[in-house]
Amino acid sequence: MKKHCLILFIFFLGCSRQNEISSVSSQSKDSLDLYLSLANEYKLPVNIKQKYNRKAFEVIMSQPDDSIKRVNLFKVANRYFNMRDWNEYNKTVKIVLENAQNAKDSVSMSKAYTYLGDYYSSQSVSDSAFFYYYKAEKLYSQSNSFYNLAKTRLSKALLQFNEGDFYGSEKAVFNALRVVKGSNNNDILYDSYNLLGVIYNELGEYEKAIEFHNKAIASIDDKVIPVEFQPKATSLNNIGFVYQNLNDYKKANFYFQEGLKEKNLFNQKPELYAILMDNLAYSKLKLNQTKELPDLFYKALKIRDSLQLASGITANKMHLSEYFASIKDTAKALHYSHQALIVSKRTKNFRNVLVALKQLSLIQPKKASKFSEEYIRINDSLQKAERKMGDKFTRIEYETNEIKSENSSLEIQNRTLVYVFSILSLIGLFFYIYKTQQARNRELLFKQQQQIANEDIYNLMISQQNAIETMRINEKKKVAQELHDGVLGRMFGVRISLDSLDKLDEEAASDKRKKYLLELKEIEQDIREISHDLNKEKSGLINNFVAILEKLFQSQTNTFNTKLVYNIDSNIKWDLVSNVVKINSYRIIQEALQNCNKYARAKTITVGFKSEINYLVLSISDDGTGFNTHKTKKGIGLQNIVYRTAECNGNVTINSAKGEGTTILVKIPIDQKINKIHNES
């Protein structure tokens, strides 16, 4: 008797599955969509729908193993669920689960666990159903998928309710409500309030039951819960059922009649229509309003027979048995009681078995002791089974959590290893950075020392050149003194002698004149030679850096047989070029000459300095053996050239090929003033 409300709730809770698959387009031209649509067409016979669903399955299995394939397989499973083809439903879901596990798709895995829970629930294998619901719940909890988490907890709550674990079911419902609190999930709210109403009805807390059924009605939202699911009629029936338990049959009658008034109830939910009609008939029986009886019972039974609703058929026949017992038609009363007992035992619905035995003991008082003994035996077994199942649910949660704890322990160990490894890596990295920084500091110190050494070398060269210059200046002074004291004295003597010729006769004067003219020629030649030497000296001492380079070139020519040709642009204002550029240019030429002497076997080396806009350009080329710049590793010499060019903020290009010689082109940025002076000059 109490199963009316429960049957109704189970059906309505299943609406979420039907709602999920009702969105499939029936007009798609694609073959897969067409097969899926036809498999979901309620007007077609079940065997035809199964045929189209198998075709859809074959098309999907030819697709690659990706998320789209899993989505489509879920659609096939949903249709098998609708057709109650449990074997194919189970096979399809397990294929999805395997695919999801291989792809590590936690979303599809959790959904597959829920579907497997539904399968085992339909097969009354409650422990397996609970296990899969619990696994799905854990995955949804980890992914913060609150809506699916709430739905799964409701499925688990319903399973616990069916097994008589009412307090466990109540706890699961409130856990479901907790994750959707404050969210606009009216379908979850409705299912939760409805189930709480059913639970409190079973626990005898009728005021709470009515309170939650009214909350369920208040939560109905047509935008979330489709009207064809008839949620209001469901809740009206459940409230009426609570009033039946309170023996307030007038109020029960009112709510059943209100439920039957809901629009399109018979077409959309014939099983709900049959329940309301059966409950209404039973209330009328209790109120002795037998005018429409037993016709109302028969109408309800006919609908249930056509839908093959075993539990509903049992309840209907029990009511008929009670009705005929009330009018003293014992034969028919026994007939319907025995049929109800047979159906209950066949379907293993032991609660209904108890109700049938109780009814039989009332109809046949002489056999009451026999029925009572069986009643007590089954009732005790049922209570033990319920307690055992409740313990089993607790054990499943505990064992699953133990496995999870072990996994968590392993995860903690792995995490600790990762932390240790990370810390060691950080220490190693820190040590590496420290050593690298030390090396860089040493390199920087070396560069600074090298720079100082280069400056010292250059200053030493300048000092040496200045000493030479001083000697040459002294030499000039000596020459000037000789010119003044020697050449000018001789010229003065010749001039005096020429003045004295006027006092001599013509013949004597002529001889002396020739002598003095010859002496003037000698003086003129001496002056020309001195002037030439002085001009040559001035040209050579235009700049100390040029003189230093010429010394380097002279040393190269004296030491090696290779011909050296050099050209230094005379327009370069070397006094405006920084010492850093001069030092590094000198070292680059020195390094290049050394490389030519060691490796090139060149006949001619050409060195040139010229001034371009914004750049001082140094070129060094030879006609030697050359090398492959892409394959040959750069030696220390070439690296030094690159390094010294970089010190001057310049760039270097090295072009070479085997048998074609080598050209080094260095371009160093110079002060705009140099070019300006160059242009003005």
From TrEMBL:
<dbReference type="InterPro" id="IPR019734">
    <property type="entry name" value="TPR_rpt"/>
</dbReference>
<dbReference type="GO" id="GO:0000160">
    <property type="term" value="P:phosphorelay signal transduction system"/>
</dbReference>
<feature type="domain" description="Histidine kinase">
    <location>
        <begin position="587"/>
        <end position="672"/>
    </location>
</feature>
<dbReference type="GO" id="GO:0004673">
    <property type="term" value="F:protein histidine kinase activity"/>
</dbReference>
<dbReference type="InterPro" id="IPR036890">
    <property type="entry name" value="HATPase_C_sf"/>
</dbReference>
<keyword id="KW-0902">Two-component regulatory system</keyword>
<keyword id="KW-0808">Transferase</keyword>
<keyword id="KW-0812">Transmembrane</keyword>
<feature type="repeat" description="TPR">
    <location>
        <begin position="190"/>
        <end position="223"/>
    </location>
</feature>
<dbReference type="InterPro" id="IPR005467">
    <property type="entry name" value="His_kinase_dom"/>
</dbReference>
<feature type="coiled-coil region">
    <location>
        <begin position="506"/>
        <end position="533"/>
    </location>
</feature>
<keyword id="KW-0472">Membrane</keyword>
<keyword id="KW-0175">Coiled coil</keyword>
<dbReference type="Pfam" id="PF13181">
    <property type="entry name" value="TPR_8"/>
</dbReference>
<dbReference type="InterPro" id="IPR050482">
    <property type="entry name" value="Sensor_HK_TwoCompSys"/>
</dbReference>
<dbReference type="InterPro" id="IPR003594">
    <property type="entry name" value="HATPase_dom"/>
</dbReference>
<dbReference type="Pfam" id="PF02518">
    <property type="entry name" value="HATPase_c"/>
</dbReference>
<dbReference type="InterPro" id="IPR011990">
    <property type="entry name" value="TPR-like_helical_dom_sf"/>
</dbReference>
<keyword id="KW-0802">TPR repeat</keyword>
<keyword id="KW-0418">Kinase</keyword>
<protein>
    <recommendedName>
        <fullName>histidine kinase</fullName>
        <ecNumber>2.7.13.3</ecNumber>
    </recommendedName>
</protein>
<keyword id="KW-1133">Transmembrane helix</keyword>
<feature type="transmembrane region" description="Helical">
    <location>
        <begin position="416"/>
        <end position="434"/>
    </location>
</feature>
